[in-house]
């Protein structure tokens, strides 16, 4: 759906790498250009008309994010550079001082590097311990396994809503309910879930949520950290500088601004935030439920065809997210990707930033195709035709 | 070299690479890992040098058809060469990839990559094994 809105799709490509980044509709590009061409000024000034307009648009974008994830207050929305920065802010600004030696953080083997390394780093710096929730036979997280992994020292559970290689959706709401009953915080990496389905932070009740703009039709370099207000109040700013201070005279007398600006030092990514706001409008004009339903139908359509090809090893026949990971027997995943590239089909080969997943699934590299609402069944047909022909693949992979 | 010959050489070395295993007496070999940060090629190379002459090379790891075949051909071409000859050979190979003047004669089967410059994203795959082995050759003290 909506293919004509995407300038990139006029370039005769089939883009199946949406878990890495998504294409941008003209509406988002126009909105960003409008800022640069018609009211390009810094935010938080307001001494002249265009600066006032900039400030209004920037804060309007924040309000759009708030509504989009159903946060209670606009102060709970912090603009960051993306999921990675958001998770690092939570790890270093909040949990670093909150966790004590031997306190336990629970993650899984199928997390993206951005939801592994900040916690590994924290273990190295303050002596807390990163532990793994065992995954079931399908490599899914179950509430039962979370319960088994929790100990009296567990203080934090950090999980992706949907994972980026296997595309499985976690029961975040149930996990959070259990976690909170045991005084455990929950951090949700929403990079792969927020763009594809309705996210309601009040309903999920997670303590922090991180996601990126560029995976949901927005620009690169903008993302969001949501946190419950009383927790964000406790989150120490990592960056000090302009825009976040109230006053300062000497090192003993530093006064910082209130949320959210306290956590947004420096000139923010204004065009990015405004672009993200427009992307949210765009997604909502289609409807998140409709997007989710359509992606599921695309996935089913592709899976039904892929499982008939005998030499494929599919890692995730069942999954909620619009991600399919697989290998072609006897052909290195990257060679398959190069072969598809010859036909302008963009897919990803590799470990997809989930470097510890190999210990879980026993497979180091795979091909990953990931859909968004602008993909079509006819694109899937073209892709299947190429994948179906192994002899052709062997000849044309080099 | 025509397209079919190129393909035949590359696929032959990919499907049946020479010396693709960890050598038996690996303590007698110098070791280097070479990997491509922009993709997933990852090769371990083992090289035995004596009296300034490359006596033996093995490799292991996971890599695409271009990297694997290029490594196999490199091994075939480098064994028996002096360090100086090896560096000259590598220089020639690199010049070919960079579309600079080079000596065709010494490269033999490695000429299969003489039009790889047309696929920019695969150029590094072909050069990856050379990058690894140069690290050892450049550090070698006779």
Question: What are the salient characteristics of this protein?
Answer:
heterodimer; A: 398 residues; alpha/beta; Aspartate Aminotransferase, domain 2; Aspartate Aminotransferase, domain 1; 2 domains; seven-stranded mixed beta sheet; four-stranded antiparallel beta sheet; 38% helix; globular; B: 142 residues; alpha+beta; Sufe protein. Chain: A; three-stranded antiparallel beta sheet; 5 helices; 46% helix
Quickly describe the structure:
The complex is a heterodimer of chains A (398) and B (142). With 398 residues, chain A is an alpha/beta fold. Chain A contains 14 helices and 15 strands.
Reading side by side through the largest sheet of chain B, how are the strands ordered? 1-2-3
CATH-assigned fold name of chain B: Sufe protein. Chain: A
CATH architecture of the largest domain in chain A: 3-Layer(aba) Sandwich
Biggest beta sheet attributes of chain B: 3 strands, antiparallel
CATH class category of the largest domain in chain A: Alpha Beta
Q: Helix count of chain B?
A: 5
Report, as a whole number of angstroms, the end-to-end distance of chain A.
Answer: 34 Å
At the first level of CATH, the class of chain B is Alpha Beta
Low-confidence stretches of chain B: none
